[in-house]
Amino acid sequence: MPDDPLIAALGARAPLSRVLAEKDIASGYLHDEAAGAPFGRARALVLPKDTQEVCAIVGACAEFGVPLVPRGAGTGLSGGANAVDGCVVISTERMNRVLEMDVDNQTATVQPGVVNDELNRVCAAHGLWYPPDPASSAWSTIGGNVATNAGGICCVKYGVTGDHVLGLEAVVGDGTAVRLGGRTLKGVAGYDLRGLFVGSEGTLGVITEVTVRLRSARRPPVTAVGFFGELADAGRAVAAVAARGVTPAALELVDRHCLRAVDEWKRTDIDPGAAALLLARSDAPPGAAEEEGRVLVDCFKGAGATWADVSTDPGESEALFEARRLAYPALARSGPVLTEDVCVPRSRVPEMLARIAEISAGWETPVANIAHAGDGNLHPLIRMPSLDAAAMTRAQHVFDDIMDAAIALGGTVTAEHGIGLLKRDGMRREMSQAVLALQRSVKEALDPRGIFNPGKILG
């Protein structure tokens, strides 16, 4: 609408930004990858290039009382980036510069639109490494990773995104840019507002810069592989690794449904007859890595692996982990997939896998499984023939029952995907009324106008 005063204000205040009105906005900007999560029509889409432009955009939305939905690459799986009717969607995709590489202090400062893998390519040129590695690392952005406190394959040893965020810049309710945290490895001045913004899913402000902690480049890892005839045996192997006190750099589970889907797509020749595959990596110093690999294989065999060994072929090892990363898109090729994200104590992984199988059978709905098994983070993949009302209702029952099972086992309804739209009811079942009230108080204090990503997390 050329006569829309909001569009005119956005164009005047952020003249270098690209501003699109509703009729010109591609549908892909209105939602993330969460199957079946509702989304509305945006009044405008704005693509700023720097913090100053974001300040102007937020200020205009505050003045007009218009909701603002930030988004990165849209790879989320909880509906956290979904538009609401009449909102302004602010995409950070053009804010994609690595602003500083501090090699001496092993930090990097980046704009939020920098892609995870691109940051690691820049790091590698300096002998450095950024550990957080979500499965979507080839497409997902640092800003989105920070907004959801994303995890990944290496989290079991190196922690999630928030463990690597030293400081950030965000634009808050009146269009003011604030810097939270800093560049030092330690800092406890006042409340941890940096930590509050990590995982806030755009509900408190728009993240415009992030300073992350880096590590020295990794050693070539040793990979341990185990095939299992029963999914429960793979779960027992995970518990056995935890009981031995071993902390591998990765410990991933892929079940037969995922293995078959990846093989049909990519012709991997990975045994699709196995009920599950466990993949583990050790990046300990030479000698220690080989010993850790042998311990992992012993745990696999002791839990009933049909075959387990240490891989000596780096190419084979990388192909196996690539199959793990491809599991979700491979399944999605054959129909809609509703992705779960629950976490339980590592010793309860066998019970959780058994409960998922029972829930799947009870609702006669196929559920595939991938997992960051080393830290108890499971991603059951609920398969649907379509997105019609009946299929979605049945899938939602499975989704809810899996969340309840995780809570009953001392776990949580989300470990890395965030609450967004899909997990709001689960969060209310997990948390007490007193804790939910504290969360609402934080939201109201930092976003008194209620413009930032309304409807997400707390509803």
Features:
459 residues, alpha+beta, 5-stranded antiparallel β-sheet, 15 helices, 21% strand
How would you summarize what this structure contains?
With 459 residues, this protein is an alpha+beta fold. 35% of the residues lie in helices and 21% in strands.
What is the topology?
Elements: H1 5-13, E1 18-21, E2 42-47, H2 51-64, E3 68-71, E4 87-91, E5 98-102, E6 107-110, H3 116-124, E7 128-129, H4 142-148, H5 155-158, E8 165-171, E9 177-181, H6 193-197, E10 206-213, E11 215-216, E12 222-228, H7 231-243, E13 250-255, H8 256-266, E14 276-282, H9 288-302, E15 305-311, H10 314-325, H11 327-332, E16 337-339, E17 342-343, H12 349-362, E18 367-372, E19 377-383, H13 389-408, H14 424-430, H15 433-446
Describe this structure in words.
The protein is 35% helix and 21% strand. The strands form 4 sheets. Strands 12, 13, 14, 15, 16, 17, 18 and 19 form an 8-stranded antiparallel beta sheet that branches. The chain contains 15 helices and 19 strands. α1 (5-13) packs antiparallel against α2 (51-64), α7 runs antiparallel to α12 (349-362) and α12 (349-362) packs antiparallel against α13 (389-408). The protein has helices at 5-13, 51-64, 116-124, 142-148, 155-158, 193-197, 231-243, 256-266, 288-302, 314-325, 327-332, 349-362, 389-408, 424-430, 433-446; strands at residues 18-21, 42-47, 68-71, 87-91, 98-102, 107-110, 128-129, 165-171, 177-181, 206-213, 215-216, 222-228, 250-255, 276-282, 305-311, 337-339, 342-343, 367-372, 377-383. It is of the alpha+beta class and 459 residues long.
